[in-house]
């Protein structure tokens, strides 16, 4: 219930710098002999740091701010995914019917592209829905 | 749920920010409670009751809701 804006911003700044460090170290790790091992280790370290920062951030929020995030997660996240699902199935159907021509693409690139678009659309839909629901929550509580 | 928070706060000449600081919440939360747009948790309701030295039912009126 304690509201502490300083802790909230400190946690966000930590996450920002962890993201920047991950990008730089990930690029260095990918040029080593065993990139998968080093990148996995980096991911584990970053996950632990971000989890701790998230815990500090969550505890710094007061109960209404927490309600806003819970509501945004449930309503925005759920409906965001539901809305983008037809887009994903539509894209799959277009590839199946050759409306989207991926034949000239190397198979490994096509596979990575497909996975990236699928994950990107799902995450994008969830985050967009989350943001919209979060804004609506606060507008209704004004 | 209706409440007398705005009146009680005004009687003490506190701003929403003053009350928020006393409660350890944001000013937006105080504003939402005063406007009847958010019902506080039980711990926060008890904190309000202690702060104003009143029973909870003298601050909040559920009008037979639920």
Mean pLDDT of chain A: 87
Roughly what fraction of the amino acids of chain A lie in strands? Answer: under 5%
Structural class of the secondary elements of chain A? mainly alpha
Largest sheet, strands/sense/barrel of chain B: 2 strands, antiparallel
- Rg over C-alpha atoms of chain B, rounded to the nearest angstrom: 11 Å
Give me the strand/helix succession of chain A.
Answer: HHHH
Shape of chain B: globular
- Strand residue content of chain B: 5-15%
* Low-confidence sequence ranges of chain B: none
How many H/I helical runs of chain A? 4
**Unreliable residue runs of chain A:** none
The structural class of chain B is mainly alpha
Rg from Cα of chain A: 20 Å
Number of helices of chain B: 5
Explained architecture:
The complex is a heterodimer of chains A (142) and B (66). With 142 residues, chain A is mainly alpha-helical. The model of chain A has no long low-confidence stretch (mean pLDDT 87). Chain A has helices at 5-29, 35-60, 63-96, 107-141. The mean pLDDT of chain B is 93. Chain B contains five helices and two strands. Helix content of chain B is 58%, strand content 6%. By secondary structure, chain B is mainly α. Chain B is globular and about 30 Å long.
